[in-house]
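Our consortium's second objective concerns turning raw sequence data into structural hypotheses that experimental partners can test. To show how far this objective has progressed, the report includes one record in full. It was chosen at random from the queue rather than selected for favorable results. The single chain below, 130 residues long, was entered without modification.
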Amino acid sequence: QVQVVESGGGLVQAGGSLRLSCSASGRTFSATVMGWFRQAPGKEREFVAASRWRRFSVYDEDYADSVKGRFTISRDNAKNTVSLQMNSLKPEDTAIYYCAPSPKQLTTQELRTPNAYDYWGQGTQVTVSS
């Protein structure tokens, strides 16, 4: 059983910042990929960012074009935790944000695909007012 817990959501004005955090725990669980997705009302869940372990201490990161340059993903692999620093927030960033860890070595395409992930947190609401 893997438990995924997000925190850090809230209400912020446009141009402001928020930092989301996520921890994944399980008796033998080790996350190769830690991803962030979001879902706005009436819309499908969409990819935001992901951090993928490649080898030794090498990781790569991927971002949706809509957040590139504004959001930064960081992780502590030893603790199975990941953070998402969100700066210059816009009203269109309003959504429920979900953390999704995966033990699998996902391809670049799979990183961006919700169905490739097996574990999800309960989500944390981010609301950006104009």
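The partners drew two points from this record. The first strand starts at residue 3 and ends at 7. The radius of gyration is 14 Å. Both points have been shared with the crystallography group to help prioritize constructs.
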